Structures are given as C-alpha cells and as structure tokens.
Amino acid sequence: MDRIVIDQKIHIGKEILIEGPPLEALQFQGGRVGCLVTLSDPEGNDFRGRVFRLSKGKASILIFDAFPSPTESSLEIILLQALPEKERMELVIQKSTELGVSTVIPFKSQRSISLEEREGRQKKAHRWQGIAIKAVQQSRRAKVPRVEECRSFNEVLEICKGDGLKILLWEREGKNLKNILRENPSHKIYVMVGPEGGFTEEEVRLAKDKGFIPVKLGQRILRTETASITLMAILQYELGDLS
After folding, report:
1. How distant, in Å, are the alpha carbons of 56, 153, 201 from that of 89?
2. Of 40, 61, 69, 74, which sees the most CB atoms within 10 A?
3. What angle in degrees, to the nearest 10, is found between the helix axes of 128-139 and 88-98?
4. CA 63 to CA 227: how far, in whole Å?
5. Collapsing DSSP states into helix, strand and coil, what is residue 90?
C-alpha cells in the first residue's frame, strides 16, 4: 500500500520502466494504460507520470511533473468511523483520503447501522478500498490509506492500545479541541467519530478508560461525515502539512 518507489533517478520528460514490487504497487492501485501515478525516487522526491505501456511483467511510465515538496503528511491519522447510512461512508473515505488519513476503520456503535443492515439495502463495502485508491490518484498522494473491515465498538478500542493522541468527538461534554491539540502534540492520532445519534454515555466511558479524550467541534451539531472531514482538515492544519 506504500508509495511506488523507483530505485533509479527520475527525470521529467523521460520514460522509465518498472517491474517487480513497483509494478505490483501499480497493479494494486488499479493501474492501466493512460492513468496517472505518483512515483518517488530513492531520495524521497515525488514525481507525476502517466502509464504509457503495460504488460504482465513490466510497465512504462512517462514522467511529466515533479512536486516541490513531499505529498505525504508526517502526521499519522487513524480514523475510527461509526458506520453511517447511504453514501456517507464513501464520502468519508474519499475526503479523508484527500486530506491525508492513514487508516480508516468502520465500526458498529449502539446507535449506528450495522454492516449487515447496510449491505442488505445496498452492497457497497467491497468498494471502499477502491474509493481510497481513486482518491489517492486524484489528489496526487503517494500512499494509499488502508480501509479495514467493519468491527464492533469494543474491537476498535482494543486496536488503539499503542502510543499517540486519542480523541473522541462528543457534542455533549467534549473539551476544547484547540487546547487539547496544543497540550498534547503528537504525530499519531486516533480519531473516533460517532453516528448521527452520537455516542452513548456508556460508550464514552469505555473510550475514556482506553485513553480517549472527548472533544467538541464548536456549538453546532454536525453530520457524522461533516465532522470527520472537518476534523481531518483541522488536524492537518494544526499538526500536519496544511498551511
């Protein structure tokens, strides 16, 4: 899922040949003749290219642009998203990918829809990783975020055992987000966003026991997808590469 790293110098206007692991990375991203890709040289410089030829064992890419700075943020954001209804999960994946999220993990909370209920109405979960890949290509990112399978509330809490800042959006009694970010600067952040009905007090208590800090995004009540996208942008502005 990492960026396509080429073990050779890359020059604008030149065609390069890739095979082996770089080709596998291209194939994972759904690469085809005519598609745009982001490549990195051994020094970490990022370039933009177009697939010119593609066969089973190799691909030819024409390089046409270079980025003045890395396209990946140094901030690692793990988004824990309560499963929303309709097309909202697809929107969350697309926009959070554009904003630099590292991992997206959907989960079932007490007030959210279950994956079985959602799939019964419209089967879409199988498309989630593909949506992230397309968003990477559109936004010129060099790394594809991982979209994991849907889990239970307790399962996602167990995932967040490592170091890093852990925040949970809670509209009722959350702390000031700006103060929390300034008091707890971190390059790894777990973000838990609830469903339309919000988290229950029991869920908040369990999350706090695992180190999560409840925070608020102002006084207005935001839809779950709006809250996720807004929070991604704030985190990248305050601690990442948005300026």
Report:
1. 34, 17, 24
2. 61
3. 30
4. 37
5. helix
Q: Give the HSE-up count for residue 134: Cα atoms under 13 Å, Cβ half-sphere.
A: 10
242 forms beta bridges with: none
Domains of the chain, earliest start first: 4-66 (2.40.240.20), 76-239 (3.40.1280.10)
| 10-14, 56-60, 97-101, 119-123: the lowest-pLDDT one | 119-123
Residue 150 has pLDDT above 80, yes or no: yes
3-class DSSP assignment, residue 153? helix
Q: How many CB atoms lie within 10 A of CB 171?
A: 18
The CB density around residue 9, as the number of other CB atoms within 10 Å, is 11
**Residue 221: CB partners within 8 Å, gap ≥ 6?**
171
Helix, strand, coil: what percent of the chain each, to 5? 35, 25, 40
Per-residue pLDDT tens digits for 155-196: 999 999 878 999 999 988 889 999 999 998 899 999 999 998
CA distance 88 to 99: 16
